[in-house]
């Protein structure tokens, strides 16, 4: 039941991860913006059934202990995160696995499930979006000053990154999302949703201050058979 930590080289970067459990069903946990396995999935690493599951929590490139490199946001950064995650699990010799993705990790999970269907067993996403609206961008910009964030959210991120890296990375993400919002219908991965064939469960917090429930409803409507 102990949690091991290690690094493995994938796509030219060294990705840090934590792993626990010895179940036959492998589950990859993908954190949100600026998140790491430890900050976003501490309870899952501790409490998920370790007889049923082998649980793997990834720090995406530029986050957590997967620095260097510093995080950047090219136009295809969500696709890059999806590709990193898939090659990472294959490097660990998992032939098939389920994905649990939160927020930005949920978007990467949607893309991965659409593009690598033979690898994905089941999919769970929460706080994920397939597009960005101008209203979303106004919300993200409204909290651009990270020093004013809720202490519970801010403190672990500030401890991990220092205020400068944390603020700069969040700002760069907002700038990239603002460019997505200029596309017709703010598309991130809408066209991929019909390609997702695995059993899919979409969760949404109705008090989520950043992500409107309309995003969850859109994803549900466009992934056939999703719940």
From TrEMBL:
Q: For this UniProt record, give its keywords in alphabetical order, as a comma-separated list.
A: Hydrolase
Molecular function per GO: serine hydrolase activity
> Per the record, a Pfam family?
Abhydrolase_1
Q: Which residues form the AB hydrolase-1 domain?
A: 26-140
Keyword Hydrolase among record annotations = yes
What InterPro entries does this protein's entry cite? Answer: AB_hydrolase_1, AB_hydrolase_fold
Q: Give the stretches traversing the membrane.
A: none
Q: What name does this protein carry?
A: BPHL hydrolase
Q: Which gene encodes it?
A: Bphl
């Amino acid at each position: 039941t102990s949690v091991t930590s290690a690094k493995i080289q994938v796509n030219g970067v060294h990705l840090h991860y934590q792993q626990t459990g010895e179940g036959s069903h492998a589950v990859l946990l993908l954190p949100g913006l600026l998140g790491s396995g430890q900050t976003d999935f501490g309870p899952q690493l501790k409490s998920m059934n370790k007889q049923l599951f082998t649980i793997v929590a990834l720090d995406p490139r530029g986050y957590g202990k997967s620095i260097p490199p510093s995080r950047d946001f090219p136009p295809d950064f969500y696709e890059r995160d999806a590709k990193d995650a898939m090659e990472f699990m294959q490097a660990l010799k998992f032939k098939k696995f389920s994905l649990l993705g939160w927020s930005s990790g949920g978007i990467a999970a949607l893309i991965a499930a659409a593009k690598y269907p033979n690898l994905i067993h089941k999919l769970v996403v929460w706080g994920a979006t397939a597009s960005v609206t101008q209203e979303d961008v106004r919300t993200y910009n409204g909290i651009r000053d990270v020093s004013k964030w809720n202490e519970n959210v801010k403190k672990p991120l500030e401890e991990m990154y220092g205020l400068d890296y944390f603020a700069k990375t969040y700002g760069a993400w907002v700038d990239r999302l603002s460019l997505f919002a200029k596309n017709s219908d703010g598309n991130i991965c809408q066209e991929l949703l019909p390609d997702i064939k695995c059993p899919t469960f979409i969760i949404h917090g109705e008090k989520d201050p950043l992500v409107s429930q309309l995003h969850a409803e859109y994803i549900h409507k466009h992934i056939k058979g999703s719940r």
